[in-house]
């Protein structure tokens, strides 16, 4: 059974301004806009309403009642912006919140109220928090949006309409409570139908003929015979767990307990479906209305609570509880099928598929960033700098073989360093070379190994590489850029052999 | 000292050793690391795995030589299929070169960091992970307390750790089990063939806990270490520099 809460803000815009400018509190002030050449009131403060100034009266009339009235310009879309903000804030009460222009919110409270000790406590908590913030508001809870809407605005007895009591609740309400347009309202008024109870029993065909399909639709929606859907502000992801807290939480151990609890719930669900988390977000809804969130990612889909907790543990320090967090929401933003061997910790296949290793890398990535972790695979290039490429994942296999026909140096300089070389005969290895002010006499040499630049990638000279061993047995990788040229040959040191 | 006293002393020493090395991972000498007489320097005459080894390298040439020698050891340690973690700052190691020493470059995961503190943290975390065959960290300097921490971690997890100390600024005592220093030596070719021979090193054991120091000449012969009788080329004074 669905339960809906509708919140009504009779003075949404003026309350908002009074919160920002406390000196306006209890003052008579209005928002106005130009409508067909006349300045009309679009929102009036509580004090103004007490004086008999309502929405849709002309500003001139209002000035006649209260000469010192303060006037502000209405901005298009302001109420939608405000409602969206309040709606997102109220996600702490239920995941599904929709806005109801111009001045209401619809909350799908199904299955949420017991967390606040029943529907009464739930409504009281919502209203108390909104009133503390400075908004005038009324709310009602019922099986249908229509009834809740009507009771929130026109109800006089109780804001809680128990299940299947919509009919009785609506009987004494005026027809405006049905969300009808002005034309139908006028027609009903003309016929003296001032209460819903007076026409609710009339045959449907009669009502349809006289008032059109809309009246029947609205009646049906209020009574629950016609389904009404809402458009949630934030779409609920399939893997999400919520943890409302009785008291606002602000200490590290408490946050960690909350994370563990949420992870246990989420991982149980995931493991039942054979899924694991690749990335997850933890959101904390704070008492002051702000949101604090942290994200984690894993290298391998996992639903191990202990491991995921360790990842969050590294981030706990970045959660700012401020005055306290009253709701935690843990969302798995990316899930993947989990490999079965993960269930047995540590006993997976040795090698890169090892669970322990994946967990270690997750922890490292959480602390130092994923970009610091690299693994290399061979790339089909001869040019030394391009002969390897970073692997995309731990599972990725090499597509080509590593080249092992020619030896490569253990240490390679990222930028070859120029050396002075004595090389008397073209294409023969140098006799000696000078590197960092030290002269090395070449005793043994190997080469040249000519490596052409890939012209389709970049322009430039080819390189002739030589392996040189000096008198002390130190081995170097030296190349000449381009062809031999007695005067202008450029030589570089590119690496050190073991 | 009488022979009886001597006997008691050796027995006590043995007991002390066993107590200290709570759980020595023993590779049967037969399928050891093929280091030949060098292994006699270690306790039980076995290359100690599951501990921290420290390699001193003062210049780029020695660094390259140390990395080559380490790669040879890594190849043996990674025979189980477990990968290696290589933590470094300003890394110059060229991964394809590893395969020349029997290590598959794709089995090595590189962690490139900037701060020493981070390197130590990552190394400690990595050493706790039993799924790794060996963890290598390039770190110029380490103090006793830091090395003790690492040593304590590996005593539990039995992962082997290599510390490559590139151009160290000070040589203080560390808790590492073995301190090495590898220097390149002129290679030799068979009967006047042209080119450059197999990598050959002067391997100095500067410090071995419960073992003794030494200096050796080794060559990497395609897939195994080849031992040469200590020649006059090697200055025996090196072995006295134990730290």
UniProtKB/TrEMBL annotation, chain A:
One of its GO terms (biological process) is DNA repair. The keyword Zinc-finger does not apply. Residues 9-150 form the UmuC domain. The keyword Metal-binding does not apply. InterPro entries: DNA/RNA_pol_sf, SulA_CellDiv_inhibitor, UmuC. Keywords: DNA damage. It holds the Pfam family IMS. This is DNA polymerase Y family protein. It comes from Pedobacter frigiditerrae. The lineage of its organism: Bacteria, Pseudomonadati, Bacteroidota, Sphingobacteriia, Sphingobacteriales.
UniProtKB/TrEMBL annotation, chain B:
It comes from the Bacteria. This is Error-prone repair protein ImuA.
């Amino acid at each position: 059974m669905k339960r809906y809460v509708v919140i009504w803000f009779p003075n949404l815009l003026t309350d908002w301004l009074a919160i920002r400018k406390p000196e306006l509190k209890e003052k008579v002030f209005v928002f106005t806009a130009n409508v067909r050449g006349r300045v009309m009131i679009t929102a009036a403060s509580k004090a103004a309403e007490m004086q008999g100034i309502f929405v849709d009266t002309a500003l001139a009339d209002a000035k006649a009642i209260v000469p010192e009235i303060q006037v502000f310009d209405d901005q298009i879309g302001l109420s939608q912006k405000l409602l969206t903000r309040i709606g997102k804030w109220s996600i702490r009460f239920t995941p599904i919140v929709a806005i109801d222009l111009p001045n209401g919110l619809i909350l799908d409270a199904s299955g949420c109220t017991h967390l606040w000790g029943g529907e009464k406590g739930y409504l009281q908590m919502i209203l108390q928090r909104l009133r503390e913030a400075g908004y005038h508001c009324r709310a009602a809870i019922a099986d249908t949006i229509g009834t809740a809407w009507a009771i929130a605005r026109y109800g006089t007895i109780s804001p809680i309409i128990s299940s299947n009591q919509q009919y009785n609740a609506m009987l004494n309400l005026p027809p405006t409570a049905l969300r009808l347009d002005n034309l139908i309202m006028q027609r009903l008024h003309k016929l003296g139908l001032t209460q819903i109870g007076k026409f609710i029993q009339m045959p449907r065909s009669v009502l349809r003929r006289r008032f059109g399909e809309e009246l029947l639709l609205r009646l049906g929606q209020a009574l629950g015979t016609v389904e009404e859907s809402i458009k949630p502000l934030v779409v609920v992801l399939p893997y999400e767990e919520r943890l409302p807290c009785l008291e606002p939480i602000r200490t590290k151990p408490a946050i960690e307990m909350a994370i563990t609890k949420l992870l246990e719930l989420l991982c149980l669900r995931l493991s039942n479906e054979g899924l694991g988390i690749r990335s997850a977000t933890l959101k904390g809804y704070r008492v002051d209305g702000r949101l604090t969130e942290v994200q984690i990612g894993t290298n391998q889909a996992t639903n191990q609570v202990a491991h995921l907790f360790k990842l969050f543990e590294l981030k706990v320090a970045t959660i700012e509880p401020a005055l306290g967090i009253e709701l935690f929401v843990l969302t798995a933003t990316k899930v993947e099928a989990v490999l079965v061997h993960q269930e047995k910790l540590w006993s997976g296949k040795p090698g890169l598929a090892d669970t322990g290793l994946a967990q270690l890398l997750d922890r490292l990535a959480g602390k130092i960033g994923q970009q610091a972790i690299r693994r290399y695979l061979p790339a089909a290039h001869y040019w030394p700098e391009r002969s390897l490429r970073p692997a995309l994942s731990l599972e990725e296999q090499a597509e080509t073989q590593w080249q092992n026909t020619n030896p490569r140096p253990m240490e390679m300089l990222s930028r070859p360093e120029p050396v002075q070389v004595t090389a008397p005969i073209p294409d023969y290895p140098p006799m000696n070379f000078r590197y960092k002010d030290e002269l090395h006499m070449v005793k043994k040499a190997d080469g040249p190994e000519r490596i052409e630049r890939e012209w389709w990638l970049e322009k430039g000279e080819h390189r002739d590489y030589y392996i040189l061993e000096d008198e002390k047995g130190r081995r170097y990788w030296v190349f000449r850029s381009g062809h031999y040229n007695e005067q202008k040959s450029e030589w570089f040191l590119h690496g050190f052999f073991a | 000292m009488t022979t009886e006293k001597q006997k008691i002393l050796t027995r006590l020493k043995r007991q002390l050793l066993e107590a200290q090395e709570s759980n020595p991972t023993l590779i049967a000498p037969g399928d050891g690391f093929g280091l030949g007489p060098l292994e006699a320097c270690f306790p039980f005459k076995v290359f100690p795995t599951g501990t921290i080894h420290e390699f001193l390298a003062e210049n780029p040439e020695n660094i390259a030589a140390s990395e080559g020698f380490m790669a040879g050891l890594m190849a043996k340690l990674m025979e189980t299929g477990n990968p290696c973690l290589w933590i470094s700052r300003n890394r110059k190691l060229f991964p394809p070169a590893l395969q020349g020493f029997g290590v598959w470059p794709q089995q090595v995961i590189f962690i490139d960091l900037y701060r020493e503190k981070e390197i130590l943290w990552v190394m400690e975390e990595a050493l706790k992970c039993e799924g790794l065959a060996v963890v290598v960290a390039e770190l110029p300097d380490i103090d006793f307390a830091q090395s003790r921490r690492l040593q304590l971690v590996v005593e539990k997890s039995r992962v082997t750790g290599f510390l490559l100390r590139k151009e160290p600024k000070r040589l203080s005592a560390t808790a590492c089990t073995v301190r090495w220093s590898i220097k390149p030596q002129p290679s030799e070719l068979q009967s006047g063939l042209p080119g450059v021979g197999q990598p050959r090193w002067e391997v100095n054991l500067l410090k071995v806990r419960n073992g003794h120091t030494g200096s050796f000449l080794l060559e990497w012969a395609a897939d195994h270490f080849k031992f040469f009788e200590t020649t006059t080329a090697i200055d025996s004074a090196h072995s006295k520099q134990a730290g």
